[in-house]
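Example record

One chain of 233 residues, shown exactly as stored in the release files.
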Amino acid sequence: MWAYYPQGLLRRHVVESSLFPDRIQEDPGFLAHPCTGGKSELTEKKEEDVLSNHAHSLFQELFFFCTIKNVGDVPGMGCIYVETVVDRDSGFAFAKVYSARNAMNAVDILASRVVPFFERQGVAIGSIYTRKTSEYCGLPPVHPFETFLATSHIQHLRMDKSAQPDKYLCEQFYSFLLKEFFPAALRRTFRLSLDELQKELDAFVEAYNAMQVKHKNQMKSKPHPSANFPVDL
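Predicted structure tokens for this chain:
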């Protein structure tokens, strides 16, 4: 079984595990991309400290990961697409793998992951930014994604009209998955189904979000830089 990775993104130096307790000690800067080991031990209260009460804006984007073909009688997974959603306000991220790109999969990640999470936190989703592609755009009465947003009272906005830095939130998160999750996950076993890959991805994303909470809480506890100076600036 072999896989085609676009742009040579499978790198040997990527660590072999989706959990990185040693790397944090060796490289404190690794927390800039907060994904570290173990299941989250954070309480819901800490998550609420990060999630504010105002309506949040999310960014959603689909990426093609690779194609795993058959080798003899061993079936491959075929194409693998990664649907990503990132919350601009809290930095929380969500990801699911699919075998095709379509509007139903774009709805599935929202219905199964994103919306239930925000409902548990008691936080409203005000808007979702997407690319202007067929998975996300169409006539609301017949297009699944447009219909889901309309019935959920979520505003649908085009990503090209957003602020420049925010346009790349999903791309940055996906690039992090390419470097730190997918190569190691696919090397650990010869035969891997989408369901098995999704289970590992869920654990990885949970750790990522746990570190988002920890990192933001640490930033809140740090004094303002001017507090280190004895004179008024």
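Notes: Residues 1-46, 225-233 have pLDDT under 50 and may be disordered.
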